[in-house]
UniProtKB/TrEMBL annotation:
PANTHER family: PHOSPHATIDYLINOSITOL TRANSFER PROTEIN, VIBRATOR, ISOFORM B. The lineage of its organism: Eukaryota, Metazoa, Ecdysozoa, Nematoda, Chromadorea. This is Phosphatidylinositol transfer protein. It comes from Panagrolaimus superbus. GO terms for cellular component: cytoplasm. Residues 1-252 form the Phosphatidylinositol transfer protein N-terminal domain. InterPro entries: PI_transfer (IPR001666), PI_transfer_N (IPR055261), START-like_dom_sf (IPR023393).
Length: 271
């Protein structure tokens, strides 16, 4: 089992990010859906009574999605996995500013596979040492990875880097934020950090290390690409309310259902 904490500093307030993240998830899902693959939304509804982060949070929004995968996993896994088994279930409990997301493969891997992503959003520059209140035994195993969304070359593939979603080139017309350069994480205002604790468990003899390392190779790329888009799309979402977001999510759900049935495979593929 590999545990890493990815810290993503952003030139946003914690309150702004709540709207920006949800708008961007809906938008990014469209980019990853087509040709029989992509995102299927099963549930998107309020929840109560689920204790999160040692009971600090218990109410929020619950989502259950299925990711239909084929081109987004390592070739060796595709060769040995039965047809139809590459469907990943995602359950998320969003009790913002805390969110817990669990990925599983109940139809095939059952309890032998899960990825848990726990995120706390704080108004700082990524300097909180133990944002998730981890016990010492887990804290000693955790590796911290800093992600600079203005760095085009650190974790991204060449196909991920586009002028319109490069924070080093982008300047918001509505907020005046950007272009991000140099030591911007130490000086920008407003500022916040998403602390993403990722635990990967894959129990399959001969493949455990390969798959767990593959997942952790993909997450910094995914987090970097997504958060670059959140910031560079700011003029699309900065004036929206949470009521606007829920309407957009419902519209996106219908569009995703249609897009999965038609067109070509889109979005990120496995490196």
């Amino acid at each position: 089992m590999i545990i890493k904490e990815y810290r993503v500093v952003l030139p946003l307030t914690v309150e702004e990010y709540q709207v920006g993240q949800l708008w961007s998830v809906a938008e990014a899902s469209k980019q990853e859906t087509g040709g029989g693959e992509g995102v299927e939304v099963l549930k998107n509804e309020p929840f109560t009574g689920v204790p999160l982060l040692n009971g600090q949070y218990s109410t929020g929004q619950y989502t259950h999605k299925i990711y239909h995968l084929q081109s987004k996993v390592p070739g060796i896994v595709k060769k040995i996995a039965p047809k139809g088994s590459l469907a990943i279930h995602e359950e998320a409990w969003n009790a913002y500013p805390y969110c817990k997301t669990v990925l599983t493969n109940p139809d095939y891997m059952k309890d032998n596979f899960y990825v848990k992503v726990e995120t706390i959003h704080l108004p700082d520059r990524g300097t909180t040492e133990n944002a998730h209140n981890l016990p010492n035994d887990i804290l000693s195993k955790r590796e911290v990875v800093q992600i600079d969304i203005a760095n085009d070359n650190e974790f991204l593939s060449p196909s991920d880097v586009k002028p319109e979603t490069s924070p080093s080139l982008f300047m918001s017309q509505k907020t005046g934020r950007g272009k991000l350069s140099g030591n911007w994480r130490s000086t920008t205002e407003p500022v916040m950090c998403a602390y993403k604790l990722v635990t990967v468990h894959f129990k399959w003899f001969g493949l455990q290390n390969l798959v767990e390392k593959f997942a952790h190779n993909q997450y910094p790329r995914l987090f970097s690409k997504f958060h670059r888009e959140v910031f560079c799309w700011i003029d699309n979402w900065i004036e929206l309310t949470m009521a606007d977001i829920r309407a957009i999510e419902e519209k996106a759900r219908r569009e995703l259902d249609e897009a999965r049935k038609t067109g070509q495979v889109r979005g990120m593929t496995a490196n």
